[in-house]
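Anyone up for a design puzzle?
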């Protein structure tokens, strides 16, 4: 009989920068589910990949002075890139898709045309509010405080001839889908979608762009590229061979379970099913929206300098410890506050003390009392029942949680068993039994029960910490056939398992999780985060006082400030320079300031530089900023803001 199939996906990541611990969390969680399903005997297809098109990537490549393709190639396949990260984290994906692969591009063109031919895509003109970093158009009513509802950044007016998808046509079936059954989980996200997006009225979605080139061209209208989200969402299908001949697994594995972060639930639970309805394909079995890893309650971001590097943590603590921490600590559906201290505490208390100690103590006792082999002759005793019942019940309880993607609760069940087994050692006092020759058979039973508890624990922990479990299985002498789901004892059974009946030979091995000195490690991590001071720049050659005096530098007041269209860096300032007329200056500091932070402030400008055109606009002078440079040459600009007491127009001397 062929195995039941299970198709699971992560979102495809933007290769616009190095991935951080938040992305790693999402992939590790999906990996644990995929490994669990394989353990349960499913024929699993686990897909991950990268979402490589769009304006943001085009701009980043331009900044880096390379082609977009070269830019993404480096981030995806280069040393220390995304593929390396997943290898390091022991991710067991069966396939990896890049949206720049030819087969995907061709399939997207066919899919776009199919929706155009069936009338669900039509040509119109788009006027709206556009958020460049999110590559999303928004309607006025969707904005939050006038800003992008996803990322909170300012949006700007944009208009272009574009193709539209008839999303409005699918409002009713999508609402029914959301309300029926368990398509979208956790359930709390359903109301969020219905109240925030469906009830206010679903508008047709703009699905093509003409303002940039880096995307899948609409083959029947070359100036247009397909909206990056249409391109991205269909990756889940094209990677199986939908609308292409590269693979032939679509029939076998479709539909998927899509694991996604909370901020992209909207795309996956509204737009995605609507488009699948349009092309007449089955919708996903489930979309699961997990929470975010945050730092001190806030978002990780480069500009805040609080981005947590998974490479560094894996190197310091080990891959399995990191995987475990991520899935044990944070309830999968909710946000979780990351901290190094929490990470170290979890490793010490759960992995080093509770789990690691149980394994090492048991193996050491079997070596000491039996020369490494537990004899088959055993005698039951009163404290056994509670432990044996828990051994029998735990797999079922664990499975119930794992089937609902409640990974932290699945682990909770395993750790209940571990704690019970540790308690059993104290109850049975093997060191006292060992002193009495007549208690050999009793001591053998105690050791066998402990080894059985460990064996069950290892099977259940395998999806989370696969490498460690493989090592520990060796230590407790479990054969391959004793590492499978089918070899687990069942709740209704009255014997423990075959493993309990035969001689068991253990092999002492390395300490699985050494205890970490919290204070020392925190200090080490702290030191790594302290920015190294770059070498001071040499002082430039002398200028005369007369030369200096030629620079007309004055205090100016910022009357208004706005982002310059199509530029990531530039802000346009309207200034009062004390002359009575308003002055316009452009400054490349948008990465460091939002316009509203600066309006009303007083700054310093040099006024007598020749006018200069930037992005089609004229700048008359330059605002002065201090440059903070790190060791890698990254610059951070700090605008020279002066006290409010200094009058506008005051000259610097
Ligand atoms: N490219 C889109 C997804 C397209 S899927 C058809 C995208 N990419 S992303 O790189 O920005 O994010 C990928 C995933 O990483 C998202 O699910 C997002 O929620 C997740 N995370 C990014 N930062 C995160 C945290 N700090 N914590 C947890 N997950 C986070 O969106």
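Challenge accepted. My sequence:
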């Amino acid at each position: 009989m062929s195995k039941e199939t299970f198709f699971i996906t992560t979102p495809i990541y933007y290769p616009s920068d190095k991935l951080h611990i938040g992305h790693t969390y999402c992939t590790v969680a999906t990996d644990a589910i995929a490994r669990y399903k394989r353990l349960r005997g499913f024929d699993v297809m686990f897909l991950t990949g990268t979402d490589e098109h769009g304006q943001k990537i085009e701009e980043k490549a331009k900044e880096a002075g390379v082609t977009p393709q070269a830019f993404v190639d480096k981030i995806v396949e280069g040393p220390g890139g995304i593929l390396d990260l997943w290898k390091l984290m022991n991710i067991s994906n069966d396939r990896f898709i890049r949206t720049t692969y030819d087969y995907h591009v061709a399939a997207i063109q066919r899919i776009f045309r199919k929706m155009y031919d069936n009338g669900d895509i039509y040509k119109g003109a788009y006027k709206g509010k556009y958020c460049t970093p999110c590559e999303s158009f928004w309607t006025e009513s969707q904005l939050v405080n006038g800003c992008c509802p996803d990322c909170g950044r300012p949006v700007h007016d944009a208009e272009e001839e574009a193709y539209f998808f008839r999303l409005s046509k699918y409002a009713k079936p999508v609402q029914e889908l959301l309300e029926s059954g368990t398509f979208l989980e956790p359930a709390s996200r359903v109301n969020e979608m219905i109240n925030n997006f469906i009830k206010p009225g679903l508008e047709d979605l703009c699905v093509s762009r003409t303002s940039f080139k880096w995307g899948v061209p609409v083959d029947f209208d070359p100036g247009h590229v397909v909206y990056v989200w249409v391109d991205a969402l269909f990756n889940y299908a094209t990677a199986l061979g939908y609308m292409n001949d590269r693979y032939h697994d679509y029939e076998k594995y479709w539909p998927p379970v899509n694991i996604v972060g909370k901020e992209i639930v909207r795309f996956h639970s509204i737009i995605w099913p609507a488009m699948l309805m349009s092309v007449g394909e089955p919708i996903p079995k489930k979309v699961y929206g997990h929470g975010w890893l945050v730092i001190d309650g806030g978002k990780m971001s480069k500009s805040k300098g609080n981005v947590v590097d998974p490479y560094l943590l894996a190197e310091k603590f080990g891959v399995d410890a990191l995987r475990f921490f991520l899935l044990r600590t944070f309830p999968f559906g909710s946000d979780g506050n990351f901290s190094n201290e929490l990470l170290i505490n979890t490793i010490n208390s759960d992995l080093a003390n509770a789990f690691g100690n149980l394994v090492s103590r048991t193996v050491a006792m079997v070596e000491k009392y039996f020369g490494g082999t537990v004899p088959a002759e055993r005698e039951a005793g009163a404290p056994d029942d509670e432990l044996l019942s828990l051994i029998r019940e735990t797999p079922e309880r664990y499975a119930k949680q794992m089937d609902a993607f409640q990974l932290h609760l699945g682990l909770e069940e395993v750790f209940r068993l571990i704690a019970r087994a540790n308690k059993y050692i104290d109850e049975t006092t093997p060191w006292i039994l060992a002193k009495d020759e007549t208690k050999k058979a009793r001591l053998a039973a105690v050791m066998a029960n402990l080894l059985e508890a460990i064996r069950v624990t290892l099977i259940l922990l395998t999806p989370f910490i696969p490498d460690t479990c493989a090592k520990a299985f060796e230590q407790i002498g479990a054969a391959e056939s004793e590492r499978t789901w089918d070899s687990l004892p069942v709740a209704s059974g009255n014997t423990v398992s075959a493993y309990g009946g035969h001689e068991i030979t253990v092999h002492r091995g390395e300490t699985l999780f050494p205890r970490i000195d919290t204070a020392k490690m925190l200090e080490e991590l702290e030191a790594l985060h302290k920015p190294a001071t770059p070498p001071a720049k040499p002082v430039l050659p002398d200028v005369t006082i007369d030369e200096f005096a030629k620079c007309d530098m004055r205090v100016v007041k910022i009357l208004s400030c706005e982002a310059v269209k199509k530029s990531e860096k530039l802000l346009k300032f309207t200034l009062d320079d004390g002359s009575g007329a308003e002055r316009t200056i452009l400054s490349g500091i948008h990465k460091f300031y939002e316009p509203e932070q600066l309006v009303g402030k007083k700054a310093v400008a040099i006024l007598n530089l020749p006018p200069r055109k930037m992005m089609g606009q004229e700048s008359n002078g330059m605002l002065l900023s201090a440059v903070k440079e790190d060791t890698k040459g990254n610059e951070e600009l700090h605008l020279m803001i002066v006290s409010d007491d200094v009058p506008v127009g005051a000259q610097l001397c």
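A detail worth pointing out: The chain has 23 helices and 26 strands.
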